[in-house]
Amino acid sequence: MCLTEIEKIPKPVVACAWNVAPNMSIKTKSEMTYNARGGVMEFLLANHPLDCPICDQGGECDLQDQSLLFGYKIGRFIEYKRSVEDKKLGPLINTIMTRCIHCTRCIRFLDDVAGNFVLGTSLRSREMEIVNYVERLITSELSGNVVDLCPVGALTNAPYAFTARPWELRSVPTFDVEDGIMPAIEINSRRQEIMRILPRVHEEINEEWVHDRSRHAYDGLKRQRINACLKKNPDGSYKDIYWQEAFEILASKINEVSGEEILGIIGEHMDLESVTAFRDLLYSLGCENIETVSNTIKISPDFRSNYLMNSKITGIEESDLILIVGANMKIESPVLNARIKKAIRENDASVALIGTPDYLSYDYLHLGNSLDILHDIINKKHPFSKTLEKSKFPMIIVSSLLLQRNDGEAINALIYELAQKFKMIQPENNWNGYNVLHFNVGPISTLEVGITTDIETKVKPKFVYLLGADNYNRDKIPDDAFAVYQGTHGDEGAYRANLILPGAAYTEKNASYVNTDGRVLLGRISSTKFGDSREDWEIIRALSESLGKALPYDTLQEIRYRIAELAPHLIKYDYIEPYNLGWTTKPRNGKIDLNWVNDTVDNFYMTDSISRASPTMARCSEFLNPEKNTNFIPEIPLRK
């Protein structure tokens, strides 16, 4: 469809394969161009069925648009149209292969971006087909993107099938909080119900890709939801109560304990507004014992370079050597993994891994599973030391999940020493190759507002406040402590709680977040609140009034002024505030308890309360996850 007419050339030429020359006269709307494109359209439609009225692609189909511009009113094809058997590609992709026009976009995406070599072509000419040679499913975490790439209705979104038409949907641009990099997404809703989620182009974060959990876990937002305040009875059952009664119970329990006997745990999806209100409330009660989910990441919040991805996401494409420590990039950040593959393909970057070997969709050097290798590299007893010395812009990516271990601070100190020894931090070249990859956004929000996460107290907590915390360490909560859970789903946090408060999900509130490279991003309302739920910071503000310690803000604008007082850089949205890349606080040395590095995420499709409540993610976990887990160390494929 890119045929054009060039002066003095008798036949139309393919524009995308023709070099531009000085004084060239190009005609894109001439009669020759129109007829040539119309001829191509006839061939494309020769075997394409008339499925437009029942096709999910209808209304946003590239073939429809081109046919409207260049198609003829009457078709001259009188032979039988071919019919192709549909393929089984997994629970997320429907196939109607008779509609396929053999553009091979799906094949090229899976090969070049996702690294999942499942699809290919067989036969030739009229008999040509797109096939999965040995009846394999597409197991890539980025598989849903082939639906966006397909220009016709051959590959469609299975969970969304036959539910809505594009012109019925209202689109809201926002960001996904289920991933630490917070990819840009577009939420499509009808009558305040989320129908589907699509990726949005953002070159500095996710380019145009989004992983399957971000795309398909939305159906978990309307299942297992907490829709009212619940009080736990002595027999273990729950009773609905009003907000006023809930605040009275909370105020009574809080007034019975001292500030040192209160423990606050911040969940994985918490926004800046909620964390700020939570911080102010607990500080006013004399409590500084605030943690994030799982074991607390003991990183100093003094400088942002201590806990962010300092090279930025786009810096991956500038680095010539990437050392990954304790992170399974394919599971912890599939979109970032695709960018690493791009850096290898386009910039000839090298990748090395310390951790569990897995298929990461590209070649890499596996140094081993032991953290002792870091000692050997620092002491130049390992061959990789010479490779680091020769590198111009080396980068190290350490998983925040690795730093959540009890010996996380000692591990961080070792990595810091490695970064300093091999000049990964080069302020003179505007380069800092020391990067922490966060799996969740909650810990980042905690550090950004100055909550010190390494405060330890020997006082046994008697009151525990779980702010959206589901993946918490159960050992932190004594059996006789009163626990309150404020969140969205009936998950692990609600199971332990004596009192449950319904909070709004990320799609039901206007909120600000910080992603793994320090970019402040705004989430926007795209659906109505579920039941009697309220925004988290509003609940905390109302509770403070019941306690007689009213927080000094009542509106969203006022609490954002408060955030600006704590950290002025947090009021600049979709922008990374420049900071001194050479300022990094040296972590305290300690003893590493376990040298072995193990995978910390065993199921990509179920990592939080939303995805665990999603039927779509349950099907993916059943059909796709078993194919990736094995008791044997897989052979690392050499194919790029």
UniProtKB/TrEMBL annotation:
GO biological processes: ATP synthesis coupled electron transport
Gene3D superfamilies with a match to the protein in the record: 3.10.20.740, 3.40.50.740
Keyword 4Fe-4S: yes
Domain of life: Eukaryota
Keyword Iron tagged: yes
Domain 4Fe-4S His(Cys)3-ligated-type intervals: 32-71
GO terms for cellular component: membrane
Cofactor(s) required for function per UniProt: [2Fe-2S] cluster; [4Fe-4S] cluster
Matches recorded under InterPro entries: Mopterin_OxRdtase, Mopterin_OxRdtase_4Fe-4S_dom, NADH_UbQ_OxRdtase_75kDa_su_CS, NADH_UbQ_OxRdtase_ferredoxin, NADH_UbQ_OxRdtase_Gsu, NADH_UbQ_OxRdtase_Gsu_4Fe4S-bd, NDUFS1-like_C, Prok_molybdopt-oxidoreductase
Pfam families: Fer4_NDSU1 (PF22151), Fer4_Nqo3 (PF22117), Molybdopterin (PF00384), NADH-G_4Fe-4S_3 (PF10588), NADH_dhqG_C (PF09326)
Record-annotated 4Fe-4S Mo/W bis-MGD-type domain positions: 169-225
Molecular function GO terms recorded: 4 iron, 4 sulfur cluster binding; metal ion binding; NADH dehydrogenase (ubiquinone) activity; oxidoreductase activity, acting on NAD(P)H
UniProtKB keywords: 4Fe-4S, Iron, Iron-sulfur, Metal-binding, NAD, Translocase
Protein family according to the UniProt entry: Belongs to the complex I 75 kDa subunit family.
PANTHER family, per the entry: NADH-UBIQUINONE OXIDOREDUCTASE 75 KDA SUBUNIT, MITOCHONDRIAL, RESPIRATORY NITRATE REDUCTASE
Name this protein carries in UniProt: NADH dehydrogenase subunit 11
Organism in which the protein naturally occurs: Blepharisma stoltei
Upper lineage: Eukaryota, Sar, Alveolata, Ciliophora, Postciliodesmatophora
